[in-house]
Amino acid sequence: MSALELRGAVVRLDGRIVLDRVDLGVAPGEIVALVGPNGAGKSSVIRALLGLISLEAGEARLGDQPVSRLSSRARAERAAYLPQERRIAWNMAAVDIAALGAPFLSGADATRRAREALALVGATSLADRGVADMSGGERARVLLARALVCEAPALLADEPIAGLDPDAQLLVLDLLQQRARSGQAVLVSLHDLTLAARHADRVLVIDRGRIVADALPTKALSAERLRETFGIRGRWIDAPSGPLLDLDRRQG
Ligand SMILES: Nc1ncnc2c1ncn2[C@@H]1O[C@H](COP(=O)(O)OP(=O)(O)OP(=O)(O)O)[C@@H](O)[C@H]1O
């Protein structure tokens, strides 16, 4: 059974269809990358799964229940969420922000878990600093730690590597992969197709609100799909570490 599922989901915002009969599922133990051009509907998929935007038709499910029937607490117990928005209004210490990811633990346990999560994302030295005084990438690590504190069955991360340096990008994707290997259902939206191909078990391609591919990376990101959806040329190269995606802006 999927931990996350959309069935025939239709979302309309401001009178415009932004998700058009979307079907997708993510099983426990799986990491799935959601890719697509700007405005294609990636954040809308994630927000619909979490019940943050309502469906005009179809259904969103977290575990065995439609998300619309779950309380906010039940949603938070089933899914950890890293939003695309990185602004934090209050200048609280990083450890206190990260601890917000574990609202169901006692204060001391939440703080201990928050420090562990900050260590996982390489942010131990930031733990006691105010988040307003941090760089964008530092703040991104703190928010990722907040999502990792909660070991919910599902983890949804909206562009978690945006603004991170190359080492941090690989660290974050390795962490998300490890979470999947330990049983979480992980859905991650990404713009970097090469990293999506390398780290995901499966790739979903969304184009103008429709899922146009849902397959293993080498199939979902075929030369034809790359040309049609992204307007770029791409080919797969056999490398000792596995298939590598080589991209080129010029049309072939
Ligand atoms: N609150 C809103 N009101 C009206 N339209 C919206 C709203 N939020 C998003 N949209 C529109 O919905 C479509 C999908 O947006 P969404 O943010 O899901 O795309 P995305 O694939 O995540 O894009 P990006 O890669 O640029 O972050 C876009 O056309 C966007 O303009």
Automatic annotation (TrEMBL):
It comes from Brevundimonas variabilis. InterPro entries: AAA+_ATPase, ABC_transporter-like_ATP-bd, ABC_transporter-like_CS, P-loop_NTPase. The keyword Transport applies. One of its GO terms (molecular function) is ATP hydrolysis activity. SUPFAM superfamilies: P-loop containing nucleoside triphosphate hydrolases (SSF52540). Signal peptide: none annotated. Transmembrane segments: none annotated. Part of the ABC transporter complex HmuTUV involved in hemin import. Responsible for energy coupling to the transport system. This is Iron complex transport system ATP-binding protein. SMART domains: AAA. Pfam families: ABC_tran (PF00005). Residues 4-233 form the ABC transporter domain. Keywords: ATP-binding, Nucleotide-binding, Translocase, Transport. CDD domains: ABC_Iron-Siderophores_B12_Hemin.
